[in-house]
Amino acid sequence: MTVAKIFPLHDLARALEASRRAGLKIVHCHGCFDLMHIGHIRHFQEARKVGDLLVVTITPDRFVNKGPHRPVFTESLRAEAIASLDCVDYVAINKWPTAVENSSRC
To answer: Buried (b) or exposed (e) across 23-62, using 16+ Cβ within 10 A?
Structure first.
């Protein structure tokens, strides 16, 4: 089930289209989430409460700028860890350094 939640970014908008047409409220969280901790999990849980679906996008490895030897976990492992949470419906790895570029594409 976890892997089924992970989409290539270019397929995410298509995957969400039926939900949009149905009038569901889609909430989006974005970040690095390299060393995921309880604060991240609580953030996702609270975000999910304000919508019908929670989409999480993550910063790709090449744009993570948190110091030497970071990210600790690859973008694929970070996506898999986030997708394993029940409160998260969709996960995608961003292509850009910030989430701003996602808003016009998803």
So the answer is: eeeebbbbbbbbebeeebeebbeebbeeeebbbbbbbbbe
**30 with 94: CB under 8 angstroms?**
yes
Asked whether the beta carbons of 68 and 44 are under 8 A apart, the reply is no
What is this structure's pTM? 0.92
16 in Cβ contact with 53 (< 8 Å): yes
pLDDT, one tens digit per residue, over 41-99 is 999 999 999 999 999 999 999 999 998 999 999 999 999 999 999 999 999 999 988 88
The single-letter code of the amino acid at 102 is N
